[in-house]
Amino acid sequence: MDLKAKLNIIIGDLFGGINSAIITLPQALAFGVATGFGASAGLWGAIILCFIAGIFGPKIPIVSGTTGPVAIVIAAMMTAIGFDIKAAVTIMLMAGLFQVIASLTNIANIVKYVPYPVISGFMNGVGVIIIILQLNPLMGHKSLSSTFDTIINIHNSFSSSNIDALLIGGLTLLLVFGIPKKINKIIPSQILALVICTFLSIKMGLNLDRISEVSVAFPKLVMPYFDVNHIIDYIPYALTLAVVFSAESLLTGLVSDSIMKTKSNPKNILSAIGIGNMFCSLTASLGGSAATMRTVAALNAGSTTKITTLINPLILIVLLYKCSGFVAQIPLAVLAAILIKIGYDILDMKFIKVLKYAPKDDLYILFLVFFLTVFYNLIFAVGAGITLAALLYAKRVADRTKTIHKKVYDADIMNMERILERDYKHKIRVVHIEGQFFFGSATQLISHFDDVLGTEYLIINYDGDDLLDISAVFALEDIIVRLKSQHIHVILVSNKDVVQQLDSLSILNQIGQDNIFYDENSAITYAKNKLKYS
User: Fold this and answer.
1) pTM: predicted TM-score of the whole model, two decimal places
2) Domains of the chain and CATH, by start
3) Alpha-carbon distances of 114 from 163, 246, 389, rounded to whole Å
């Protein structure tokens, strides 16, 4: 690697660290306040976790800190334990330890088999919870502990709202939602809104609840409970927290690998985040997970190595020491508005836009997980969603076994494909998606399309009789996007029902109507002609 290439890597990591730190600052402060730990704990947690997880984690940049799902679980936990910081330290320490233990097993691979509707229902539920719980702080009141209580009391809260809080909170919402994307790419809307609205609230002398105090000193060591009774009592909380810490971290790893075309070790990610959370717990700082939004921001800024995860906390420390006085003046209504935007961003708009076309089974799973997440329990919701998905899939297989009789695939066609690839030097390839194409196989399938170098025309032949579930649809879309990014011409062969389904979900737009066929011979002839005259 020459000097210029090394310099480009360093510059990319520097901008990635700065960009992700700017996004982290308002979120860490807001989550710290929302969970009951305090703004300082939120900020120091982001610093410590990102730094420790960066040292022990994979080579790719994975920025860590408290996220929406983590904040919701910790806020509920804090209410349940009566805001006992020593108890919270014990639970987070145990959660981090459970993550490290899990990294020594194959549990990390399970996340690949979670159905998409379960993930979507969970994320939509978390987004809605964040939005609902911040309505009271937006109106100048203290946040209530549950979504149900907030909804029941919303009329009373609104009728007695603080006009100053509503004004500054409303302005913050206008800014975070209204700032154009061109500006947002340069300076994130959340940090702009935070600075502008805090400055205005100070200059106008508004009567508002504010952060009030931010500690610049490194957090002191807090010892956990060591007695057996406390540890046994806190195991359920710790397991719940460990699951949320781990699930989002592993999903962030998948997203990062997808963008960078890499294959990081999920066990390494799990152990690194676990060690980081153990360090956070002993300083009474807010634990967390790998943060998808911040990681993607770093990657989009040009980051390519883990140096970003060391630059990010250094930038946050500089901002903390230089701007602590200003941070103490930030109104809680401003943080509430920023959290509402974060909640909105968590919503899975991709799935929401195609709800009316989604298979009924996927909708049953989505709504079950969504309502259980919002009004009952996050972990129970995910478990119930996975169970329902498995039962519905078993029913589909059983129904299909009774009615469908499929011919054995023609050996002559297989031989023709081998001759085709040989004669055309693999410029034309045929790939078959055989068997059940559903959430359990979708993620696995994507990896098979990572290495098709030299291919110009790839014919994907899905000859299954079943319609695709939403996980498979989005996996197929991901495959198409990856192949197109490698300048590979994609041709699809399938039956009319599947083609109609993909058309209703706007997936065929990625391929083009001219590249859709109902038999393989026609697709091969088309590819030969295109190659001949290209």
Assistant:
1) 0.74
2) 3-387 (no CATH), 411-533 (3.30.750.24)
3) 45, 13, 9
